[in-house]
Design goal:
This protein is of the alpha+beta class. The protein contains 12 helices and 10 strands. The strands form 2 sheets. Strands 1-5-6-10-9-8-7 form a 7-stranded mixed β-sheet. A 3-stranded antiparallel β-sheet has the order 2-4-3. Bound molecules: 3,4-dihydroxyphenylalanine. The site of 3,4-dihydroxyphenylalanine has 11 residues, from β9 and β10.
Amino acid sequence: MIEKIEEKFKNDLASVSSLEELEVLRIKYLGRKGEATRFFIGLKNLTPAERSRVGQAANKLRQKIETQLSQRKQEFKDRAAVSSQRLDVTAPGVRLRQGHLHPRTQALRQAIGIFRSLGFSALEGPEIEVDWYNFEALNFPKDHPARDMQDTFYVKSSVGKEDLVARTHTSPMQVRYMEKNNPPLRIIVPGRVYRREATDASHDYQFYQVEGLMVDKEISVANFKAVMEEFFKQLYKKKIEIRLRPSFFPFTEPSFEVDISCVFCNQEGCRVCGQGGWLEVAGAGMVNQSVFKNAGYARNEWQGFAFGIGFERIVMMKYHINDIRLMSGGDMRFLKQF
Ligand code: DAH
């Protein structure tokens, strides 16, 4: 009888193919009314001698079954562990996404390359400035209305007495650079600037400028115009006209707004240039002697031009982008296109 059960169990066990089935089998044999348990129920009706014989045999059977069940259980577990680590060489690969430079960075690198070919070195300055470099040294006295054009974000300083400003332009680097370097000099300063601005398609509260400064003994507006012509010709890969209109900046004298001939319609008139044929791209002028003085140079000893290009506008024209806010928005649908 007991041998038969053992035999039957072996057959059953051989056909088990999962942990769940194994559990069913355990209950079938070792459960309260299981095949290997039933013997114990009738034991009390037997004589003591028979009782001990049958009891021992039944106990042995139980142990054998228990051992085999737990061996089998372990086998299932091992197999599951191995198959979860198995490498399926036929599975489709994971596509690696390759990134690229931001369109502004691409254009910036190109611009730096062009200016470098014209003898300008590129450097950067701090985005959080002290009032002195951002305004005062550039001839914006405190309370002067020219400051209103460049309302910005102020940062309470925990270090010095002076409050800090998120710089409104890259021009502060003119004075910072001239304090440490003597003419002749040719630099450009690309970088992010900030304005307190209600945003729309052509205004954002953060954008890039490329500042330029050239100082020597006999620098004139003609030199400036030539540099602009060459820069835009190389950037847009065609001849570009430059137009200077009188303007005002406290740190230049005289000052101008710089327009380029429309890169889209060649001055025939289109939506981008508002039919006018010209696009405004920069502010510029001849460096005010007070700025030289604030940087530690003697008055009337040097001449130079300076300019500040609104860089996003140039990038937007290069790639036909119609909303400046896309430039700092981080929207992948936009960025993937470049
Ligand atoms: N910093 C000026 C602005 O942000 C632009 C500018 C005008 C820069 C004249 C210059 C300059 O260097 O000479 O509006």
